[in-house]
Amino acid sequence: MKIFTLSSREFNQQVSNAKKAAEEGPVYITDRGKPAHVLLTFEAYKKLTGTRRNIQDALAMPDVAEIEFEPERGNVGFRDVDFS
């Protein structure tokens, strides 16, 4: 995994190059010579944070019909309302 470093000015002028570099590894963006931000691909971010998939992502998966899903029946209680 390569690590790239760009100044804020370079990043602003070369956003496309920074995005391409992020495919190979993190891109450190410096401000006055000190690391201030890191550019990652979304996949690298999800792997880093351990983000679990949500229901929308799960339903968008191929072969989703093969996943067993039996939600419990909701129990909604009704009560009388006094409008007096």
TrEMBL record:
Short name of any one Pfam family annotated for the protein: PhdYeFM_antitox
Family: Belongs to the phD/YefM antitoxin family.
Purpose: Antitoxin component of a type II toxin-antitoxin (TA) system.
Protein's name in the database: Antitoxin
Species: Pantoea latae
